[in-house]
Amino acid sequence: MDNEADVFYRELPKVELHAHLNGSVSCHTIEKLISRKPHLNIEHGMTAIGKGQRRTLEECFQVFKVIHQLVDSEEDILMVATDVIREFAADGVKYLELRSTPREEKNTGLTKKRYVETVIKAIKQCKSEGVDIEVRFLVAIDRRNGTEVAMETVKLAEEFMLSTDGLVVGLDLSGDPTVGHGKDLLPALQRAKNCGLKLSLHLSEVPSQLEESDLLLNLPPDRIGHGTFLHPEVGGSQSLVDKVVMNNIPLELCLTSNVKGQTVPCYSKHHFKYWYQKGHPSIICTDDKGVFSTDLSQEYQLAASTFGLSREDVWKLSLQAIDCIFAPDTVKQQLKLKWAAIKPQVFK
Ligand SMILES: CNc1ncnc2c1ncn2[C@@H]1O[C@H](COP(=O)(O)O)[C@@H](O)[C@H]1O
Ligand SMILES: [Zn+2]
């Protein structure tokens, strides 16, 4: 990690709603994976982007490929998922929605079904160990894989939603935003919505996707990942903004990810400012805490220092995120009670 956030931000109870499992693997866990697979000749510098470093989005996607080579068996996924959950908990995250793309690996016999089962096993294991965090899972569709795989993924997610007692709550659409077109994925996304899966879609992460964003917003999704180029000042449009506002669709905003991946030129120009000033639900998230060498406390601190937020503002920001989770109202109520119990300690 580049830095450590101040105590206030670490102790602040937080909600993490946008975290890709394999992008969230810490240095510590990468070391364990490298020692399991020395023959791959993978070094640390290949799996994380350090302080002050920038990469193109394309280069970021190369990094995921390297991590996927390191995480290719049930055993790896179990270790990675339990480590990631424990790390979020240690950073003061009380509710986490983890997302990941089910992968099949011929070499190790891993199937997509076993992949999801293993993530669920990790969530249950952490719960039984008493780790202080509620975790839910979003099954991810990689947009590069097209219509058929998207539909298969929805069916898989549907099965697990029904069999896991509410641990699988929704679907994510992610992957290289420059590849494929959202219109090919609409039938799968519509089906997901109809069967009760919540939708969090990466939208307008890169410029010039007005048509695709418009199509996807008509679903409408339950949350938006990034939405970097939605508003008119950056080449989006007022009608896209109006759709987001009218449907009150929360945005998952990831400052370090966007700056290090160079879709946003610097922190002060991040679109958090645009949406936050509007009073629109804006949730601070990490995206890939391992790859971008950050954690959620640092992201809150960055938002506060860049946009001049008071501690009270920061508190409201983290509290407001509870209303945007995909788990049911009973969980929201429990979390709000937890926040109320912690508040006096944080503001002492
Ligand atoms: C940086 N911005 C981003 N934009 C779009 N998709 C992203 C992403 N960051 C991560 N992913 C998606 O998450 C996968 C890695 O985690 P999982 O193997 O699924 O756990 C990547 O391969 C990509 O599909
Ligand atoms: Zn993402």
Automatic annotation (TrEMBL):
Stored Gene3D superfamilies: Metal-dependent hydrolases
MF (Gene Ontology): adenosine deaminase activity; metal ion binding
Adenosine deaminase domain segment(s): 13-335
Pfam families referenced in this protein's UniProt entry, alphabetically: A_deaminase
Ranges in a coiled coil: none
Catalytic activity: N(6)-methyl-AMP + H2O + H(+) = IMP + methylamine
Keywords: Hydrolase, Metal-binding, Nucleotide metabolism, Zinc
Cofactor or coenzyme needed: Zn(2+)
GO biological process, one term: inosine biosynthetic process
Family in the record: Belongs to the metallo-dependent hydrolases superfamily. Adenosine and AMP deaminases family.
Subunit comment: Monomer.
PANTHER family per UniProt: ADENOSINE DEAMINASE (PTHR11409), ADENOSINE DEAMINASE-LIKE PROTEIN (PTHR11409:SF42)
Name recorded for this polypeptide: Adenosine deaminase domain-containing protein
Source organism per UniProt: Zoarces viviparus (Viviparous eelpout)
